[in-house]
Recover the amino acids of this structure.
């Protein structure tokens, strides 16, 4: 409370009250600025962790009195609902663009195809994260399924098979696709996947064409190949697998063939009698003999091809 000396005149009293009022106003502004800064920091944090718009993040924070955890949960729930709504509306639109994802781990490998409508969306980080999620969910499924199975194991997963797999804390891949559709506004689909598991003495080679340099954990591109082989010169097996993968992507063989098969010219569709892409003076079989190796199996994916094309 303001204490006023008895000898003050009216003008001095007015001035004193004015100074007190200004001080209170400055203090109020300072407190208000602190609150605004704190709210802005929460807004930035929520925006960064979720990727949702500032408007939606602000709405969520206001709804839950700046509780970031509750706001984030609510945002995900709303996005999921909107994603499924958009997914249902866009269901009939053709999705033939997208990416092939390839991951080669310890004695196991995965190759997946995820489709979208345009190459523009295929280059988006959120779509690439979806491809990564599909790849690792498929790998986890393979490892759970084949823990007690020795020898060579190969599994092909359809679109329906992939949709049922889980990612993260029990979220299905179908939900993850719907969420990404809601964020990017294009129809998307899980096309197919293949997994291979090999014995200790076998090797897996891979190659992705049109790769995305920003992705390191999972190789991504328009074309992909996995090749299972034995042998090869010590220290050169990784390069051997890559060269074989490049050939499979470039020459599109449909079957393996035999080491002694005679080539049928440019129309040859068996891998082993084909002219080797990296050395046109030899067939693939002749190249493998020189490397003391043999191919046991291979898979090739081309983004957007029909199932009949791949068979």
């Amino acid at each position: 409370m303001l204490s006023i000396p008895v000898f003050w005149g009216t003008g001095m009293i007015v001035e004193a009250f004015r100074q007190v009022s200004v001080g209170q106003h400055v203090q109020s502004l300072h407190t208000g600025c602190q609150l605004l800064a704190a709210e802005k920091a929460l807004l930035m944090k929520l925006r960064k962790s979720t990727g949702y718009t500032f408007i939606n993040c602000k709405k969520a924070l206001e709804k839950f009195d700046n509780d970031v955890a509750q706001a984030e949960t609510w945002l995900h729930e709303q996005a999921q609902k909107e994603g499924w709504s958009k997914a249902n509306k866009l269901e009939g639109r053709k999705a033939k663009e997208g990416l092939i994802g390839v991951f080669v781990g310890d004695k196991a490998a995965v190759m997946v195809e995820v489709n979208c409508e345009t190459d523009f969306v295929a280059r988006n980080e959120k779509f690439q994260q979806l491809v990564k999620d599909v790849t690792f969910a498929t790998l986890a499924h393979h490892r759970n399924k084949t823990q007690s199975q020795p020898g060579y194991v190969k599994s092909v997963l359809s679109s329906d098979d992939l949709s049922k797999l889980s990612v993260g804390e029990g979220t299905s891949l179908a939900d993850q696709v719907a969420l990404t559709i809601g964020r990017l506004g294009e129809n998307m689909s899980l096309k197919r996947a293949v997994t291979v598991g090999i014995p200790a003495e076998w090797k897996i080679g891979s190659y992705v064409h049109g790769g995305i340099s920003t992705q390191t954990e999972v190789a991504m591109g328009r074309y992909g190949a996995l090749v299972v082989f034995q042998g090869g010169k010590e220290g050169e097996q990784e390069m051997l697998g890559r060269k074989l993968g490049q050939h499979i992507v470039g020459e599109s063989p449909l079957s393996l063939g035999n080491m002694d098969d005679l080539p049928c010219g440019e129309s040859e569709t068996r891998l082993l009698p084909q002219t080797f892409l990296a050395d046109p003076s030899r067939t693939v079989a002749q190249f493998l003999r020189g490397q003391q190796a043999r191919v046991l199996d291979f898979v090739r994916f081309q983004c957007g091809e029909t199932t009949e094309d791949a068979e």
In short: Strands lie at 97-104, 108-116, 153-157, 166-167, 171-172, 189-197, 202-209, 219-221, 223-231, 293-302. The CA atoms of residues 121 and 127 lie 7 Å apart.
